[in-house]
Amino acid sequence: MTQAFSYLRINPDRMLDAFNQVASIGATADSGVDRPTFSEAHLAARKWFRDHIEQSGFEFHTDGAGNHSAVLPCDDPSAPTLILGSHLDSVPNGGRFDGALGVMAALEALKTIQENRIKLRVHLEAMDFTDEEGTLVGLLGSAALAGHLRPDDLERPRGGRGKLLEGMQRVRLNESGMLNAARRKEALAGYLELHIEQGKRLERANLDIGIVNAIVGIWSYRLTFIGKADHAGSTTMEDRRDASLGSSAFTLAARETVMRDFPNCVVNVGRMEFAPGAFNIVPAQVDVSLEFRSPDEEQFDRLDQVLLDLAEREAGRFGLSLKTEYLGRHSPSLMDETVRNTFAEACNDLGLSHTPLPSGAGHDAQSLADVCPVGMIFVPSVDGASHSPREFTEWIDCVNGANVLLQTALRLGSG
Amino acid sequence: MTQAFSYLRINPDRMLDAFNQVASIGATADSGVDRPTFSEAHLAARKWFRDHIEQSGFEFHTDGAGNHSAVLPCDDPSAPTLILGSHLDSVPNGGRFDGALGVMAALEALKTIQENRIKLRVHLEAMDFTDEEGTLVGLLGSAALAGHLRPDDLERPRGGRGKLLEGMQRVRLNESGMLNAARRKEALAGYLELHIEQGKRLERANLDIGIVNAIVGIWSYRLTFIGKADHAGSTTMEDRRDASLGSSAFTLAARETVMRDFPNCVVNVGRMEFAPGAFNIVPAQVDVSLEFRSPDEEQFDRLDQVLLDLAEREAGRFGLSLKTEYLGRHSPSLMDETVRNTFAEACNDLGLSHTPLPSGAGHDAQSLADVCPVGMIFVPSVDGASHSPREFTEWIDCVNGANVLLQTALRLGSG
Fold first, then answer.
1. A383 shares its domain with A281
2. Burial of residue A251 (number of CB atoms within 10 Å: 0-12, 13-18, 19+)
3. For residue range B365-393, what is the model confidence (pLDDT) as tens digits?
């Protein structure tokens, strides 16, 4: 462990300037950003990042999955790469901090190391991963880079196959490029990510830094409740096979079951789509976007079974049939112990309070967790707001997080 | 009452040919039609009707609401007009019979009267009313013609203001034209409509003709349940204000209440729209398309109050707020007694069995019920299918209905 660089700090004003520039791209009237993957605003943010990388004197790198990065090579061409990063896409009508902060902190860490001409034993990359939020696939870029992306993920993406192909065309990506974007395991020294907490634990406990110990697993389905289209005036209530009854009853029952029997888990029905969808027609079909999460593998399997059984039961109760489309699963991921300890040392040296905590949200770190040592830190988010224009983190907390990221990269890269 | 024309019958093959031509416009793979108001297919059907009117030697007439008709004038220019008609628009993915049968039967009745050079005391019109189904406003053309259309109906239409304006532009209609399309009461001798039953009563009782005694009233709202967008992984179940819970609980409770306390009424939640609508975001807002119907005015008011109270209660139960947008109301309408008796006489003379029955569906006839004598007849619909590609009526039943329409027009027009 080299303590020689422990005096180094990132440049808060330079990072803020870059952060504000990104936040202005796809900005919404309510201080959020709207940058779903491969939307016009997202393309503009990707272009800004590329230009900024080149203007800052780094090599620009991209791959078959559309991941973008600034490269700061070390003297040994055969050395592995330590990646720092996050993502520039947002959920629809999201916030300024989720993802963008991590990319800006990664780039600022590289700038600080570059301008101080520090020689490390690893190459460094500051990376923007493609489609973390799942507008199209979810953790797309990181899964591709880690070698986890399967043809099936592209065949039946959660955002719809048509939208995926259209988006890929817009940035000139193709499926074979995506499926061949994996890096060799040996070429990866590790992955570090800074993110806002997306919860209230740090704020409530008045702590500076959360060191993530595990990321919850995420499972998603499209459930389709199928009834019969009928005239909404002349068909008696008894004669109807109304798909909305199955989807509504499932939504309520799923919540109740999770709250009662799965206290560590969460479930979300983020969307229902009605067909034909008119005032005066009994709904023939309702598509339900279902997602649930668990930090624990065994509980995860049990919850999966329970929710699918519930959907079957509620469909049957209202004379409906049920179609279940499996969309994808990410297992719970453990963060690397050495990385976690190094984060803690860096916090201690910087005089920052810290605590271990799990991540209820999915992150690119989980894609990489089984191919290299990965670690994540959280900074406090006011009122725990996330995936919302209300996202806000005090700038001092962002700077603290970036300094922990910098110090941890220096320690791991020179070790 | 002149029985001189009682030998007259419509031409079944000629009517079938016209019916099939219309059914091919906007035809769907499952034998239905998709002709929402002012869609490409609807415009094509309107153009077909206009061309066909002119080719058949009738005057073509249109008005500020886009209603199209074939005119067969009588010798007295100051005589009033007896309108026969229905509509050529369909619900999304609807059937071939709803509306189109009534327009084709009306036109066929005029052709039969024209070719037999029969002199009546009224002008006749075979009319296609604009937007009966409510893609945009609902009963738009007939309300305009009856003088019931109000600026507010065009300001806050159920299909959305933008869609209405866009559609009107497509057919070169404007708001002032719509609001000034009313005919003088004295110029209207009456309105007759043939329609498929949209229910199973005639089929179950094995009867030829249903003579409508009343049309149920329809009331519609857009209810908006408002919660808070949050990250669907990191926000605890307890901390959420999930708009989908209010909309789901309301949908189930509304059905239960109507079935228990309002046996003559029906309620429909035809659509929910989720915002932001992503897998990984707790729904901040759900828009509910609500419609309910009653044949009885007093019960109607009570049901309105009960449903709005239910929505408030369910919103409150899940920490949501509720926005209620009133979209429109049609009161229950009684059909004219003389017209009903004339329908019955015509059925008797034609050897057709008949029964009085209420209409659970709304129809253009209700717009006209308070400005002139109106009447409606139903023909059996197989399995009661309606607003669905499964709509089917035996051709002999369609022909029977058209003959009742013809004979009733002759009797009323020569009386």
1. no
2. buried
3. 999 999 999 999 999 999 988 888 999 99
- State pLDDT tens for residues A66-84: 999 999 999 999 999 999 9
B143, part of any domain: yes
Extract the tokens encoding A249: 């009853």
Give percent above pLDDT 70 in chain A.
Answer: 99
The parent domain of residue B240 ranges over 217-330
The SS3 assignment for A59 reads strand
Tell me if B280 and A91 make a contact (CB, 8 A cut-off): yes
* Cβ-defined contact of A272 to B267 (cutoff 8 Å): no
Those of residues 12-51 in A touching chain B at CB distance below 8 A are none
Final residue belonging to a domain, choices B275, B296, B330: B330
Q: What is the ipTM of this complex?
A: 0.71
Distance from CA of B189 to the nearest CA of A (A): 29
Mutation target vs B (from A231, A259, A359; most B CBs, 10 A cutoff): A231
For tokens 């300001």, the residue is B155
Residues A359 and A294 grouped into a single domain:
no
Is-above-0.80 flag for pTM? no
Helical ranges in B56-207 per DSSP H: 100-115, 140-146, 151-155, 161-170, 175-179, 201-205
Closest partner residue to B281 (CB to CB) among A138, A244, A270 is A270
**Chain B residues close to A216, C-beta within 8 Å:** 233
Interatomic CA distance for residues B362 and B214, integer angstroms: 10
- Among B258, B266, B278, whose Cβ lies nearest the Cβ of A92? B278
